[in-house]
Write a structure and sequence with these properties.
The complex is a heterodimer of chains A (about 325) and B (about 350).
Chain A (H helix, E strand, L loop, with lengths): L1 H9 L1 H20 L5 H26 L7 H18 L7 H24 L4 H19 L10 H8 L1 E6 L6 E5 L1 H18 L1 H11 L1 H6 L4 H27 L11 H10 L11 H21 L5 H32 L1
Antiparallel strand pairs in A: 1-2
Helix pairs in contact in A: 2-13, 3-8, 3-9, 3-11, 3-12, 3-13, 4-5, 4-6, 4-11, 5-6, 5-11, 7-11, 8-9, 9-11, 12-13, 12-14
Chain B lengths: L8 H8 L1 H20 L1 H5 L1 H26 L7 H19 L6 H31 L5 H20 L9 H7 L2 E2 L3 E2 H19 L1 H11 L1 H6 L4 H27 L10 H11 L11 H19 L8 H31 L5
Antiparallel strand pairs in B: 1-2
Helix pairs in contact in B: 2-14, 4-9, 4-12, 4-13, 4-14, 5-6, 5-7, 5-12, 6-7, 6-12, 8-12, 9-10, 10-12, 13-14, 13-15
Classes of the chains: A mainly alpha (about 325), B mainly alpha (about 350).
Chain lengths: ~325, ~350
């Protein structure tokens, strides 16, 4: 029992959770609107897309890499799929769009994986390159424009709801989208893969120490390649969910989201140097950032502050965890030296 | 014994550097292609002048990024610093010299504004350096975060709108032409590049950042003050970014929080193309300057083909970046192979 308490108090997740609780109480006091059914459903709704991206970013960061190409990857996969389906006058079910997007996302992810598994160049630089290739293909070669009329089945999937929450005082309603189920499912699957499969343990091992992982018998290249394929699939899924929820394809809507997602993952305690991190942390980190972004209006802070506060959150959040790492490193050095 | 400049040690080093040779060949081929395909534009002085106005913007930023990458870090916040400081300069200029102010006041206002911008840029760099060296946050995260922070400050100052209506003297000076031919921007860039060249090759600071980038732990154990070294490196990067901001202010005659948004990738591309090792420790100023020239000529060359949409540009930049890192990887493998062969070790 003591062991668990000790583990809990040392974990980053607890602090992030504490910050979220403190923040939500603050917002509740200031606005009286936070702990209302519709606001909570709104938050869950806003978490779906960044949460899905966050799961992918978490896997990459645990492996010791960093991926900034996933919004461009998702945009390209979803744009190409939607364009094709609209041009061919597709009227069938939502299964085909999902299948197409995921295959395409996997292929684009393989493009990332080809470079990241073979070059020793930092993955940031590789994915900076591939991100531009993806958005260049979308905007240049495909000549992307906004597609206002997406196939009927996609639009109805996006507007389908699990339940509707109503705020009794203001009369505002918010609906819980079906796509929230996708987030839950992806989190569950990735949790299982990361914890109970050789592949998942390999991702942790590679992020902890690549040469040690290779000596322990992990196929480092193979792991890195398939990791990016999977991340591509998850990212394109997030892109499709966003498109169905918006009811239209806006090609550049996702671009620029990478920072907020990486911030969420790192705030949740995933070490940017790789090897450690948990999905609980990722979800808490995402919730924290979504709460900050969504609640500014509730508290009455102008949206101009959004980018500034995001930057501050990244620096303070990563600073605290980096400081903890440095301190434990110093402690170790003191013992050894 | 008399030796010509071509036989001096630095020149011999340059000739032995295969990467520099490769860059020179690429540059030569591009120029040749340009001269053959668009002879008229190639012979026109204005083509070259417009290039010389444009490249100092991202060229100055790339010089700062180069230094940080030699230490094994990276600076992704340069565009944020440039926009924040150029907005700061615009605000100072506009408040000190409102419309109709006399020449003396305007001159003072411009001087104060420039100093403010450069100091703010250096301070922003110092913040990056402090977070990297002292708090030990990885440089990628520091500068991605501070990019948001600086851009956020720029948005807070301007409310997201452009700042314009600067005193015309500013643009006349910094977007003017020396002797009626040479754009001032390129002179600023040349001076800045020479200064950084001196810093890298003639001072202990230069030697130390290479040592730090090659092996941070060894550098620390051999008694280098790595904290102060890193802080100073990021300060130089911030200073150069703010200089780039001042050039952008002159070129556009206005400042806005989201100008130059494609430059982040471009600076990284330039520095990597120029032969700086992204893991730190190696890289030459001459290679980076060549890379700047190559990319500017490629960019201007693309402009001459209206059929190629501007949206292809990221595709080309990204493609070039991937091609360069792959080529470097392959040639690095080959030279590694050669070395181990010479030593008689099995591969």
């Amino acid at each position: 029992m003591d062991h668990y308490i000790q583990k809990l108090t040392r974990s980053n997740e607890l602090y992030v959770f504490g910050v979220i609780v403190a923040l939500s109480i603050l917002i509740q006091v200031r606005s009286g609107q936070f702990f209302t059914a519709n606001n909570l459903v709104d938050l869950a709704n806003a978490m779906v897309v960044p949460g899905l991206f966050g799961v992918g970013a978490y896997m990459v960061i645990v492996s010791g890499g960093i991926d900034v190409s996933f919004p461009a990857l998702a945009s390209l996969a979803v744009y190409a799929t939607t364009r094709y389906l609209v041009d061919t006058g597709y009227t069938g079910s939502v299964v085909l769009p999902f299948a197409m997007v995921m295959v395409l996302g996997g292929v684009l992810g393989a493009f990332n994986g080809l470079f990241t598994s073979r070059l020793t160049v930092p993955t940031l630089i590789i994915t900076l390159g591939t991100a531009n290739v993806f958005s260049g293909v979308m905007q240049g070669a495909l000549g992307s424009v906004q597609i206002p009329n997406i196939p009927e089945s996609m639009a109805s999937f996006g507007s389908a709801t699990l339940f509707v929450a109503k705020n009794p005082t203001t009369g505002l309603t918010s609906s819980m989208p079906v796509s929230f189920v996708i987030l839950v499912a992806v989190v569950a699957i990735v949790f299982f893969v990361m914890r109970f499969t050789m592949f998942g343990r390999g991702i942790y091992a590679v992020g902890g120490d690549e040469s040690a992982a290779a000596r322990a018998g992990f196929k480092v290249r193979w792991i890195k390649f398939w990791l990016y394929v999977i991340v591509g699939v998850i990212a394109s899924l997030a892109g499709l969910v966003r498109t169905t929820m918006m009811g239209q394809m806006h090609p550049t809507n996702l671009l620029g989201m990478e920072m907020m997602v990486i911030a969420a993952v790192v705030l949740g305690g995933t070490a940017i140097t790789g090897g450690t991190g948990s999905l609980t942390g990722v979800m808490l980190g995402t919730l924290l950032i979504v709460t900050v972004e969504n609640s500014m209006i509730l508290v009455g802070i102008p949206t101009f502050w959004q980018q500034f506060s995001l930057g501050l959150l990244i620096i303070v959040g990563t600073g605290i965890s980096a400081h903890q790492v440095a301190r434990s490193g110093n402690g170790l050095r003191a013992v050894l030296g | 014994m008399q030796t010509s400049i071509l036989d001096s040690k630095p020149m011999r080093d340059l000739r032995r550097d295969t990467h520099i040779t490769r860059l020179l060949i690429i540059l030569g081929a591009l120029l040749l292609l340009f001269a053959v395909v668009k002879t008229e534009g190639f012979l026109n002085l204005r083509t070259w002048q417009s290039m010389a106005i444009q490249f100092p913007e991202f060229g100055l930023m790339a010089l700062g990024v180069m230094l940080t990458m030699i230490t094994g870090g990276i600076d992704l916040s340069v565009v944020g610093i440039a926009n924040m400081t150029s907005i700061g300069a615009a605000v100072v200029m506009l408040s000190l010299a409102p419309k109709g102010a006399d020449t003396g006041t305007v001159t003072i206002a411009i001087a104060v504004a420039m100093v403010t911008a450069l100091v703010a840029g250096t301070a922003a760099g110092a913040l990056n350096g402090f977070l990297v060296a002292k708090i030990k946050i990885p440089p990628i995260l520091v500068t991605l975060g501070s990019f948001e922070l600086f851009t956020g400050i720029a948005i807070l100052i301007t409310g997201g709108k452009p700042k314009s209506g600067l005193p015309p003297q500013y643009g006349a000076t910094f977007a003017g032409k020396l002797f009626g031919v040479i754009p001032v921007q390129v002179v600023v860039f040349a001076v800045a590049a020479v200064l950084i060249g001196i810093l890298m090759s003639r001072t202990t600071f230069g030697t130390k950042i290479y040592m730090l980038g090659t092996n941070a732990k060894a550098a620390q154990f051999s008694g280098l003050n790595t904290t102060s070294l890193l802080v100073r490196t990021y300060m130089v990067s911030g200073l150069y970014a703010s200089l780039a901001g001042l050039v952008m202010l002159a070129n556009y005659n206005s400042a806005k929080a989201d100008y130059g948004s494609t430059y982040t990738l471009l600076t990284v591309l330039i520095v990597v193309l120029g032969g700086v090792n992204p893991n730190g420790g190696t890289g030459r100023l001459f290679g980076v300057v060549l890379a700047i020239a190559i990319l500017q000529i490629l960019s201007s060359g693309l402009n001459m083909f209206p059929a190629i949409s501007n949206f292809y540009r990221p595709l080309i930049w990204g493609g070039v970046l991937l091609a360069v890192i792959t080529a470097n990887h392959l040639s690095g493998k080959r030279s590694h192979h050669r070395i181990s062969k010479r030593k008689g070790q099995p591969q």
